[in-house]
Amino acid sequence: MRNKILDIGEIVAQRVLELEPHNAENYILLSNLYASHSEWEMMSQVRKEMKDRGIKVVPGCSSIELDGLVHEFMKGDWSHLEANEIREILRDMSKRVHASGHRDMSKRVHAVRHELGISDVLHNMVDEEKENALCEHSERLAIAYALWKTKEPTVIRIVKNLRVCGDCHEVTKIISTEYRREIIVRDRVRFHKFVDGSCSCEDFW
């Protein structure tokens, strides 16, 4: 018997696709829905349909302004002049996040089946590749840069062109506690204010 959430999600997604057949985000949402329920064949069909129609995903981009200069970070892009320093901060972030007991969403997908994460993209990767892909999301690069360039109690303010993924949302909550920093992220959907391990959206966005 299929999950009712999956059935309802399919109906909503198909309707949205009828209204916006060329919007890549609609396909990604449907793909994520199938992945969160381990419907890998259906997920692959959605991805194939995107490819056949020539629909491309908009890459994640996060920006932060420091000392009057705007720094932009793209997912997996290491072209920044201070990339080595950013990597060092990311390593420290990763250690602290892991020490807190956090498990990335690719490992939690079976435990929390309704969570809409990134498992659709990562389910065929080995664990190390999964972790690296998660750590290279644009907002994490921006946060790492801000942690290196500023000190508490400076508020970290980031703007992202896409919706923050569930894993980055959880990680940012942990970072706000570990580094004792207030982090404000404006994504495509809303503002998120991370303070002391919690977010103003109350985990609903």
Structure commentary:
- This protein has about 200 residues and is of the alpha+beta class.
- It is about 50% helix and about 15% strand.
- It has 9 helices and 6 strands, in the order αααββαααααβαβββ.
- The chain has a 6-stranded mixed sheet, covered by helices on one side.
- β3 (about 155-160), α9 (about 165-180) and β4 (about 185) form a beta-alpha-beta unit.
- α1 (about 5-20) packs antiparallel against α2.
- The longest helix is centred in the middle third of the chain and has 17 residues, at about 85-100.
- It is globular, with a radius of gyration of 17 Å.
- It starts with a helix and ends in a 6-residue tail after the last strand.
The whole-number mean of residue pLDDT values reads 85
First CA to last CA: what distance? 29 Å
Number of helices: 9
Rg from C-alpha positions?
Answer: 17 Å
Percent in strands: 5-15%
Which regions are unreliable across 5 or more consecutive residues at pLDDT < 50?
Answer: 107-131
Described by strand count, sense and barrel closure, the largest sheet is:
6 strands, mixed
Question: How would you concisely characterize the structure shown here?
Answer:
49% of the residues lie in helices and 14% in strands. It is α+β, with helices and mostly antiparallel strands.
